[in-house]
């Protein structure tokens, strides 16, 4: 399996978009990756927009981005909450500085905006935050997946297959 021993942070907070959290986790695990759900509190249950629960493995304060190969930010309304945590911003900025894969889908772009890492980047997202992405200095594209260096972005659940494939391909190269 091409992602054996690769460790990935999957950020979690209430009101995540259920498919945008679980589909990448399951696909990456199928390829051998170790995916840890990381939230404000360890061993806490977070509920998605459609009622699917996710239990965090660790809290933000229990991990170091240096111990991980990549990070995933789900969409839904969770990104609006996640971007308010200094630890989340720090993780994203550290992953960016280390050129480690950062996956973001739908509204997850809000977290990257708050981390101030989008200047000059090519991205996509849900069309609802297109202006936010552009105002952060990115060039927005209406495509299922956009890869710019180590940042992999996608629009919405129907785009999950090409998004996760692009993310896995990038991670396998590292």
From TrEMBL:
Keywords: Glutamine amidotransferase. The keyword Zinc does not apply. Residues 6-167 form the DJ-1/PfpI domain. SUPFAM superfamilies: Class I glutamine amidotransferase-like. The keyword Kinase does not apply. InterPro entries: C56_PfpI-like, Class_I_gatase-like, DJ-1/PfpI. It comes from the Bacteria. Gene3D superfamilies: 3.40.50.880. It holds the Pfam family DJ-1_PfpI. Belongs to the peptidase C56 family. This is Type 1 glutamine amidotransferase domain-containing protein. It comes from Ornithinibacillus xuwenensis.
């Amino acid at each position: 399996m091409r992602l054996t021993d690769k460790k990935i942070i999957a950020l979690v907070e209430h009101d995540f978009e259920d498919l945008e959290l679980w589909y990448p986790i399951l696909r990456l695990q199928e390829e051998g990756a170790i995916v840890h759900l990381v939230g404000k509190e360890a061993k806490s249950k977070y509920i998605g927009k459609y009622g699917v629960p996710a239990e965090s493995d660790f809290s933000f304060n229990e991990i170091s981005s240096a111990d991980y190969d990549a990070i995933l930010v789900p969409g839904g309304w969770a990104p609006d909450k996640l971007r308010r945590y200094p630890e989340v911003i720090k993780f994203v900025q550290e992953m960016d500085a280390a050129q480690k894969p950062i996956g973001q889908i739908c509204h997850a772009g809000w977290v990257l905006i708050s981390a101030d890492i989008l200047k000059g980047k090519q991205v996509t997202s849900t069309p609802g935050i297109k202006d936010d992405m552009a105002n952060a200095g990115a060039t927005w594209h209406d495509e299922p997946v956009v890869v710019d260096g180590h940042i992999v972005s996608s629009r919405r659940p129907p785009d999950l297959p090409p998004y996760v494939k692009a993310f896995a391909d990038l991670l396998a190269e590292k």
